Structure formats: structure tokens, C-alpha cells
Amino acid sequence: MAAAPILGLLLLSRLYSRGDSAGLGRAGAESQQQAEKFLRKYGYFGSMHRGLDPAEFSEAIREFQWVYHLPLSGALDASTIRHMSLPRCGVNDLDSRSAWKDRVDSMLSGRTVRRRRRKRFSHQSGKWYKRHLTYRVVNWPRYLPEHQVRQAVKAAFELWSNVSSLVFWEAAGDPADIRLTFFHGDHNDGVDNAFDGPGGALAHAFFPRRGEAHFDNDERWSLDSGKGRNLFVVVAHEIGHTLGLEHSPVRSALMSPYYKKLGKDFVLNWDDILSVQNLYGKPPRGSVVQLPGKLFAHFQDWSQDLEGTKHQGGDHSSHYCWSFFDAITMDLEDNLYIFKGGHYWIVSKGGNATGPDLLRAMWPGLPSTIDAAAFSEEDGKFYFFKGGRCWRYKGSSLDAGFPHKCSSMGDLPRHPDTALYFQPLHHLVLFKGPKYYMVSGESLQVEPYYPRSLKDWGGVPAMANGALTRPDGFVYFFRNDQFWKFNPDTLRVVESGKWASQLGWLGCQDAALNQAVV
After folding, report:
1. Active site (catalytic) residues
2. Using alpha carbons only, what angle is made at residue 240 by residues 238 and 243, rounded to the nearest 5 degrees?
3. Strand 475-479 and strand 466-469: pairing?
4. Exposed end of the chain (fewer CB within 10 Å): N or C?
5. What is the distance between the alpha carbons of residues 94 and 120, in angstroms, rounded to a whole number?
6. Into which CATH architecture does domain 96-116+123-301 fall?
7. What does pLDDT average to over the chain?
8. Residues annotated as binding site?
9. Omega into 115 within 30° of 0, i.e. cis?
């Protein structure tokens, strides 16, 4: 889907939530057209549908609401619009309801599901007629380590082989039955399949026997439980499509169309297992193997630890330069602390990086990933935030009473995007989406009249993954591979660019490395 319909749907959702009748009148007609485009793209209108028939439009809305467990009003209300704007799979929902009904009927009656032929892929078979399939990872985001990507893809295929008769092998450079590829924007799959940048459609796949899964390279992909879209979850979902599985209306199913974070429960739902077994049968030997999501939260732990490989000749001193980091802060000696996954690096005032070292070796008790971090010049302490909890350390010593639930203390946001000690006001600032919170470091209470709009920070982007104040007084914000330089006197962004290649004090001086950052 193009980005414009998504933005239009978000706008209309906000107008609904504010009760802005004048705004609704201006935006309603255009946004309804964008909703119609969304419904046509995802199979809720026939491919030959022309014009806007109110009864057909209402029925399509009702069908969408049924699939996503919304009240069946048939009206384009705020909740429906919000669901349309959420990140999801780009494959349409054309037969999801009827296919699910067939599965449930077969489960209750004991008969075999009769496979429906899809209109969109009517020239293709609905299943593979062999049990041994090969796959190939054609490319991947350069900021993710290759061996960890391959581990994640292998684990995603094994989810399905553990509950069916299928067997998968990686085909390295050879031709493969299933190919996984990352693309930007339009990649010759048709207008409806052009990627739309961050959010919207994350990926799409083709049914047997084309055997291709495509992923939006403009997304920020992650292989742990930190920031970004979890690549393992999305790959496992798209593999389901390459095997012939439709979307599932079961909310907890992996094959549900909308993106969900990796949880602690089993990755595959009963409906996922029933779907693949209806096509390929049960495992030939032994019972079904179900694995919990927490097992796949940290693929860096599946392979050699960064510390181990560093001492065996691998150079990871500037590993973060290839990638995005989770948080960044600076102490009183102007040493930078850069956090990624379960590791951190220290970059000296002269731009020399050391590390990586384990978070827990320096700050015992921290989780394996963090959402945000800040060093307070007021009390000389490190503050860490993850989910609804916070940690406060003096050096390596955890303060008494920590960690505790910060979200219950003065309405601090859960999963903050970034944290910053803002010297002009002598306060911590937490950023979350389009808002920011001024916080007292000692009590961790939100100050009165906050949160406020991020528009106060003229030009600073939402969802930054790090921020700090430099000795020259400027505040630097980071998101993915970009930086924004903010002047606290004029309250405006005065410069932006690529941090790895333009900010030498971050320790990424290697020219070849800088060119590789994407």
C-alpha cells in the first residue's frame, strides 16, 4: 500500500478521537476513498469493483471488522481506521474467513479440508507436492550479522517442520524452492505490492509454487526483543504463505495478518498447526514440537558471543557502526556509552571505541536489552528503562529499592523511545512517540503539565532511539542511521545527516565501514 492512504487513515483516526466534526467533514470523503483502496488491496472488494456502492462498502467494512474482532458496525469508525493503519503482512485476506471456516468444520467433522483455489493466484497450486524443500536467503539488511540472520531463518523454518511432515534445507548459493529477499519500494511485483517505507506492509509472499518471500528493507529489523520489527516473527509468518497457508482470523495465530511482537507463549497457535497439517500431514516420527517465543528472543545468544569472537580474531570494536543502537548517553568525563542488545561500548573523548562488554558485567541486574538510558549530571547516576521498569546505578551499584515499576510512579511511559538529561532544565526527559515527559531524577515523578507535544522540539523526529548533550551545548538525537542536531537556545534542529560517517566522535572513523552503513 502506498504511504499516503496510511497517513490519511491515521489522520482520520485522530479526528475521530478528538471529535472534530469540521475536520471530519473535510477529511472524511478523501479518507473513505483511501479506506476503499485498502479494502480492495486486501481482498475485501472484488478485483473488478468500480465506484463506491454504499451497501457493498459497508459489507466490506463488516467483513474486515469480523476478521479483526471489532464490533460489526459496518461503519468506518475510529477503531476500524486505527486497525487499518497498523503494520501488517502485504498478502491479502481474500479467503481467510472461508478457509478458517473450512478448517474448523473439518476439525469438528473429521473430514479432509477441500482446498480452495485462490483468485489472485489461480494459476498456481495451493501446496507443494513434495516434502523436502530448500530455501535460500538472497540478501539481508547490512546492519544485521549474517550468521544471526541465518539462525533466525533456520529457526523460522523449523517452527513449521516441527509440527508437520515437511523438511527444510538451506541451499546456500544453489537454486532453491523458497527464496527470501529484501527490497526497497517498487520491486516489479506490481503496484499493489510496492513497499511503502516504515510501517504499513512489512513483507509479502507468494503461494506455492512460486516460492518467494519479500521484505521491506526500509523497515528497522531486529533479531532480539529490543527496538525494531522482529525479523524472526515476520519471516516465520511469510514462510507460512510460501507453504500455502492463508491468513488466520484467530488473534493469537502466527498467521494473523497484523504484526505482533514476540511473546513468551508458543509461537504457533492451534490454528497455525491445523492449517499446515491439513496440507502436509503430521510429523512422520514422534509428536508435534511446540516452542515458546522466549526461546527466540536473542539470536546473538545462539552463536558465539561477541566477546568470544573478539578474542578469536574478529573485530567487533566498532560493531555498532554497522547497525542501529538501542540507546546512547555520555558521562561527566565525556565518555560515550553506546548500548545494543546485551552489550555496550565506551567511546572516549578522542573518538576511540572499546568493547563490546556485557551489560550485566558493568551493571548487575540489568535485562539483556534496554529501551532507553541516560546519565544525569545532577546526581552522577545512570538511569535505565525497559518496559514499565527502571534501574538507577551509581557506578556499578544499584540504588536501594531498584528496579521498580516506574510506570506506576507518576505516569511515566512504558517502553520509552529514548531518555536524555537536559542540562538547561536540570531534568531527565523521556520521549515516547509524539510526546515528551519532564521527569525529576530523584523521585522519577513526571512534572506538572506533562506530557507535552514533541512539536516543542522543533524538527526532532518521533521514535528516536538515542539522545545526548555534547560539551558544545547542542543536543543530538539519533534514529536508525540518521542524526539531528538540536539547538537548545533557538529550540530548532540546525543540522541532520548520517551519524556513522559525519560524527567522528562516535568512533566510526573506518572509511570502508562508513560506506557500508545503510
Report:
1. 238
2. 115
3. antiparallel
4. C
5. 8
6. 3-Layer(aba) Sandwich (3.40)
7. 81
8. 89, 177, 187, 189, 196-197, 204, 214, 216, 219, 237, 241, 247, 255, 326, 328, 371, 373, 419
9. no
Question: Which single residue is written with the C-alpha cell 551519524?
Answer: 499
What one-character-per-residue DSSP string does 418-436 give? EEEEEGGGTEEEEEETTEE
> pLDDT per residue over 247-284, tens digit each?
988 888 999 999 988 887 889 998 899 999 999 999 87
Q: Using CA atoms, how far apart are residues 416 and 436, in angstroms rounded to an integer?
A: 9
Which residue has cell 511511559? 413
Mean pLDDT, range 173-192, rounded to an integer: 86
Q: Which three cell numbers stand for residue 21?
A: 466534526
Q: What is the 3-state secondary structure (H, E, C) of 140-191?
A: CCCCCCHHHHHHHHHHHHHHHHCCCCCEEEECCCCCCCEEEEEECCCCCCCH
188 pLDDT above the threshold of 90:
no
Binding site members for Zn(2+)? 89, 187, 189, 204, 214, 237, 241, 247, 255
CATH class of the structural domain 311-516? mainly beta
Alpha-helix runs per DSSP H in 180-339: 231-242, 270-280, 306-310
**Where are the domains positioned within the chain?**
3-85, 96-116+123-301, 311-516
**Complete DSSP assignment for 75-136:** S--HHHHHHHTS-EESS--TTHHHHHHHHHHHHHH-PPPPPPPPSTTTTS-SS-S-SEEEEE
Q: In the structure grid, which three cell numbers stand for residue 226, read together? A: 529490543
What letter would DSSP give residue 473?
Answer: S
d(CA 187, CA 257): 22
B/e letters for 84-103, b = 16+ CB within 10 Å, e = fewer, are: bbebbbbbbbbbbbebbebb
Using one digit for the tens of pLDDT, what is the confidence trace for 480-515? Answer: 888 999 999 999 999 999 998 899 999 887 533 434
- Give residue for cell 498467521: 255
Grid cell digits, residue 496:
541532520
What global pTM score does this model have?
A: 0.64
pLDDT bucket at 516, cuts 50 / 70 / 90: very low
Residue 110: is its pLDDT beyond 60?
no
Q: How far is CA 12 from CA 19, 65, 196, in A?
A: 10, 17, 19
Copy the grid coordinates of residue 371.
Answer: 529501551
Of 347, 346, 475, 343, the C-alpha closest to 421 is: 475
CA angle 446, 447, 450 (to 5 degrees): 80
> Which residues define the annotated binding site for Ca(2+)?
177, 196-197, 216, 219, 326, 328, 371, 373, 419
C-alpha 337/C-alpha 421 separation (Å) is 14
